[in-house]
Design a protein that fits this description.
The structure is a homotetramer. Chain A is built from 3 helices and 5 strands. Chain A is an alpha+beta fold. At the A-B interface, helix 1 and strand 2 of A face helix 1 and strand 2 of B. Strand 2 of chain C pairs antiparallel with strand 2 of chain D, so a sheet runs across the interface.
Chain lengths: 135, 135, 135, 135
Amino acid sequence: MITTRYELRVRYAETDQIGFAHHSRYLEWFECGRSDMMRRLGYPYGVMEEEGVLLPLVETGCHYHLPAKYDELLTIVTELRRIPRATIGLDYQILRSADKKLLADGFTVHAFVNKSGRAVKPSKKFLGIVEPYFK
Amino acid sequence: MITTRYELRVRYAETDQIGFAHHSRYLEWFECGRSDMMRRLGYPYGVMEEEGVLLPLVETGCHYHLPAKYDELLTIVTELRRIPRATIGLDYQILRSADKKLLADGFTVHAFVNKSGRAVKPSKKFLGIVEPYFK
Amino acid sequence: MITTRYELRVRYAETDQIGFAHHSRYLEWFECGRSDMMRRLGYPYGVMEEEGVLLPLVETGCHYHLPAKYDELLTIVTELRRIPRATIGLDYQILRSADKKLLADGFTVHAFVNKSGRAVKPSKKFLGIVEPYFK
Amino acid sequence: MITTRYELRVRYAETDQIGFAHHSRYLEWFECGRSDMMRRLGYPYGVMEEEGVLLPLVETGCHYHLPAKYDELLTIVTELRRIPRATIGLDYQILRSADKKLLADGFTVHAFVNKSGRAVKPSKKFLGIVEPYFK
């Protein structure tokens, strides 16, 4: 399993009139989490994309437990729990950094496709980076 | 069952560098769909909020089938399939208006809470509007 | 001069915790206005882009007079007041549709560039469409 | 003069189909910059708001010089150049952290209002914090 933690602060623009961060922004935060994981693995997603492999989202889901508020520091915990095959699945937890309370948890599933949108296998390069974490 | 249809056009700002609408915006579109349903039922969500009942999201999920592209007209189909109890669940389909292809489908589940965040029951007013559709 | 009007409704996701639409969304609305103008001129911006001419923003400005609120219908008035030369400038007014009150006004200036980011002249096709309005 | 620097990373969701960060997000980044300034001054904007003073935007402007790209680190330089009076004006520069190139610069002007939207003077508390920087 690979686990990374990324910290971000709730932006004013991310709040809505209830006074909490809008639920759609959590998907951006998940994305920040997995971008950070890729960067830490030494294979930034931008590089993978330049090399011709894209990871469009095919499914997502999220449970919201407690609201996130303006200016709070959040910790995005991103986990790769299984070796990617035809798809790659990631799990996320959003914690309030101050007290480690779980605000939300969710997941994303992505396909591997080439620039013409055709399904491809995960590259050997990527698997070579990821597989050692599962031994 | 209550079904409503709402049309919107993909904004340039909603695209990302793959060239498709970003997946987080689908949650905004679901929200446009349910706002429109409430408006058509004669009980706009803004009025419900003023009357002291909020509908924070507790869970969402979405499957993405085909990309939505800049300037395309989309139809958001919103469905209330069950009479709301402690929570209200809505289902959505996002169709490309031009050819009725299904681009995505998803759901949201909301709690009923008062302004202090306490769980409340759906109001008689709201149930009085909704229940006739289920007879 | 070319003037077009485009109507949209303030989304819940566009509000912030003050209870008004967030100021950054006005730039999206300006964009909706100019996309609509291009569509009405019979030359959608997506087509211009496919033909190799992009219009990146080089400058923008906005005055905010009155807040826009959730679910309100807004009218985006977009004006092309001068024939485009090296750049194209557009002016916008955001009105509350219900009472025509001016909520904000602003402008955008765009360069014409090709896909490698090089400055180009506006195409004959585009000028051929636009110039008759200035006679 | 007060100058603060805040670093952030361009999110994938912030890009558009040209492949650059969308211009509307720069206004969010300015907001991140001024939120950070307030926090560093020991008077977070959230606290000011709780104490009953809001800072709605009345004007903004931005020049875009070079594109910001996915995953790049940016430095938001925020400057308060004059003691606030009826309004407060802030200036911003957005630099690419890697080479300090100026990507954009802009400004925001905000009113001081109370919770009913009435114009108020900047509080003594706020001026007491800010004025020493101008001596």
